[in-house]
Fold this protein.
Amino acid sequence: LTDTAPPGVPEPARERIGIFGGTFDPVHVAHLVAAVNVRHELGLDRVLMIVANDPWQKSGSHAVTPPAARLSMVEAAVEGVAGLEASGLEIERGGVTYTADSVAELRSRHPDAELFLIVGADVADELASWQRVEELRAEVTLVVVTRPGTVLSAGALDGWRARTVVIPQLEISSTDLRERAGTGRPLDYLVPAATIRRIRDLALYAVDR
Ligand code: ATP
Ligand code: MG
């Protein structure tokens, strides 16, 4: 045990990384409020906002905006924000998106880090339907953020190392924002200004602004 630190010498702190996956179609202020508040409350070094390549639980029901455009909107949203990073990890991997693959990849890149998987309460309620849940449970602490209109079912967090973080309740969803954009109503203050510019530049959501 020659490489063990002598008594009194503190171990280097393990990096604390938040993993916040989403379709982000488009990213909105509730996503960002969740990310910065979890980072603050749990003292995370950084939060990766990982853009799903092909969200298998969604792509059957409606057309999802191409992944590169969704990543570009998240990049615009977090530019200059300390501790928030847009991640194209799942897009680079390609194919159908399983969080377990992303966690495994982050674990191999950061063997010593503490990993925190951040989900809204609506998503936390559906964890049982995810692929390879056992693997996830072994690798991460689950962080559930409160979301208006969602009450967690009893037992939803059983088997997880879990924390709940209460955040300001913002009744915003990407579904509503797409609907708004499609009918020409403003996205201002619901979506960061830089992201709105990106939406305009990329001519997304059939909106003429
Ligand atoms: P959609 O309506 O397309 O499902 P969304 O607004 O739910 O979009 P997602 O990309 O599905 O956004 O969500 C990414 C993550 O952000 C999920 O864990 C989700 O629970 C969380 N989240 C989204 N909106 C909110 C909100 N208003 N408050 C708290 N958490 C949220
Ligand atoms: Mg959603």
Observations:
- The helical segments are 29-42, 67-78, 89-93, 99-109, 121-124, 133-139, 174-182, 193-201.
